[in-house]
Write a structure and sequence with these properties.
globular, about 220 residues, 9 helices, alpha+beta, about 50% helix, 5-stranded mixed β-sheet
Length: about 220
């Protein structure tokens, strides 16, 4: 069965893997899901993607995609019923530019705020302040429209929201106390959505020889 489907190595809580799964759900691109434990990565995944990060997708033709945005675009260019690649305002290029800014600069501060013990000399308070500057910009953006590129969900919303969720839940009381009503409403809608519930479903750790788990199921 699995030979006729792409394979997706994933980790439930990883925001990069989350956004890949979001695109797979909305595009209905069915894959064999292999849930990874990051401290015990399967050799099969490392053999195709030595960098050892999730998500990793292996298409049925053997092509390996190990960048989450590439997986999102792979899925959505095949089937995009919600028009995530056709924003109401702006362009795909502009969305990708904003996503890249969050993947690079915002994620740098997010990691050091959420996991200060992993980074020697890290000051989590300072990184929270730096990260908050990006969130303030999003809040201003959302003050004139419901979503980041108009009044309809698009790629940028779904690519960025898993990282904003992670930042917010590092200290949810603090996040909720900030004057970011538009951003807070935007994030709450994402977390309360059916697609979020579906993308956060728990799966057992994959091991070679296990019965294939299909996603979305």
């Amino acid at each position: 069965m699995s030979a006729t489907y792409p394979i997706l190595y994933s980790f439930r809580r990883c925001p990069f893997a989350m956004r890949a799964r979001l695109a797979l759900i909305i595009s209905n691109r069915v894959c064999e899901l292999r849930e990874v434990v990051l401290r015990d990565k399967p050799q099969e995944m490392l053999d195709v993607s030595p960098k050892g990060t999730v998500p990793v997708l292996i298409d049925i033709d053997g092509r390996v995609l190990d960048e989450s945005i590439d997986i999102m675009l792979w899925a959505l260019t095949q089937h995009d019923p919600e028009k995530w690649l056709i924003p109401e305002q702006g362009s795909v290029a502009e969305m990708l530019e904003l996503i890249a800014e969050f993947d690079d600069r915002f994620k740098y501060h997010l990691d050091r705020y959420k996991y200060p013990d992993r980074y020697e000399g890290s000051d989590p308070e300072a990184h929270r302040i730096e990260g908050a500057l990006y969130l303030e910009k999003l809040n201003v953006n959302l003050s004139t429209k419901k979503y980041l590129f108009g009044n309809r969900v698009a790629l940028a919303d779904m690519a960025i929201s898993p990282f904003i969720r992670q930042f917010a839940h590092t200290d949810l009381d603090w996040f909720n106390a900030q004057p970011w009503s538009q951003l807070q409403a935007w994030l709450s809608e994402f977390i309360d959505s059916e697609i979020y519930t579906q993308v956060m479903k728990k799966y057992p750790k994959w091991e070679s020889g296990n019965t294939a788990v299909m996603f979305p199921d």
